[in-house]
Amino acid sequence: MNQVDLTTKHTQKADELFLLDRVVLILEQARANVVRAVDNMVDIFCNDSMKIVDVSVGKNGGEK
Fold first, then answer.
1. Which one of 14, 20, 29, 62 has the fewest CB atoms closer than 10 angstroms to its CB?
2. Of 36, 38, 16, 34, whose CA–CA distance to 26 is shortest?
């Protein structure tokens, strides 16, 4: 194996590692976005549920 072959293999390996790092970064960002979106949906659901309960309790409490 000559120097050109070793350099080519080294460059290919570096390109593969760079690509792998990019894929990992993209997946980590996507995961963080999903977590944030789910947290927002849960907050909205809980807030809406509390409003429904408040309205229901208020109506039932006033109808004695």
1. 62
2. 34
